[in-house]
Amino acid sequence: MFFTFLWPSKDGDGGSQRAAFLLQSLARIGAVDLVYLTRRKDRKLEDLVPLTTEVASVSIVKIGTEPISDRRSWIPWSIGRWVDYARFGSKEYPRFSRSNLRRIARQLPRNKTDLVFAGRLPSAALVDALLSSGYLHAKRRVVDFDDVMSKVIKQKARLDSRARIDARVYAALEAAAIGVAEDRATRTWDAVSVCTDEDVQTWPNRRVIKLPNVIERPLLPSSPGDGRHYLFVGSFTHGPNLIGLMRFLDEAWPSLRSRLPELSLTVVGMSPPAELKQRLANLSIPLYSNVPSVQPFYEQCDAVIAPITYGGGTRIKILEALAYGRPLIATRFAAEGLSLRNRRDALLVDGVRDFPDAMIGLAEDPALRSSLASNGRKHQQEFFSPETLAQAVRTMVL
């Protein structure tokens, strides 16, 4: 059984893409029952993107009350998250009542299985609760953390100097609770996976395995442009994308516009907040939200930027740019875990303020654009292809 809160989709956001390739890899080993977990009472299979992997069964399991902080409510979000914390505990490792577990168990395709694969820590929390309550029996259990969320939350808290004291206290409690749950899983589950070598070293001498993020995209023809059209792609429900782009607009865009006025930027992303929409409109930067496919935007751009300054794991949007054959400029932090070579596979910069020099230099160097596009694609195909993940998953679960 594969438990996940993220519907597997190779064209979705980073988490959904990872879920899709994990599901594909597991299906190569044996029959998989997909258990899709949701708090939405109206969620139906026909409303979801069709699966690209054949599975034994699909169960949409409704797991109870939606957190106040995740829905419209008369209660302010800053208060709602504290109410949710009192009711459910950590959002990444929630508690489940006995009655809720009984309702969930009745929705499962079966109560015995050879292997449980939990996609991310919240799914592992539910599996733990079902197993300990006797509602589920499994010979083996493995969990994919993807990111080490305790580290991600601590990074964000350090960077957000303007956060209110209650937000800082909440972040500290969340990081501590998640850290305890992560540590427990690495000791009690049969195997745990993360997506970078650096994260593997968080728990030395334990059964922690690297499952790299992967991507599958067609190589596009070379860009016909003059090197001055840049692209940013990312889901804005993911904090590092939103904060990274906002910092780019603050710290890099004014210099770029004054030094090379003809340089342009296009932003493509899911669920942009009103603040970002207004900011981009004021700067006359086109924004395309919730598009059915990002490929047309990659076809039209000359290069891609990734001004990410915090987060965890590897950025699938970076791999996507490389797979499409587009030159990439990224912070060294954004490229962590990808083993990219500066000026060979991508242009790597120390911080957001370094983007103007890099972008203008790349715009004026067609030979460099061509070599980065070619080498970046080769790097992605060698180290971050679906076959690479399939082999690692087989090693993990067998």
Automatic annotation (TrEMBL):
Transmembrane segments: none annotated. GO terms for molecular function: glycosyltransferase activity. SUPFAM superfamilies: UDP-Glycosyltransferase/glycogen phosphorylase (SSF53756). Gene3D superfamilies: Glycogen Phosphorylase B. The keyword Transferase applies. CDD domains: GT4_PimA-like. Keywords: Transferase. This is Glycosyltransferase involved in cell wall biosynthesis. It comes from Sphingomonas xinjiangensis.
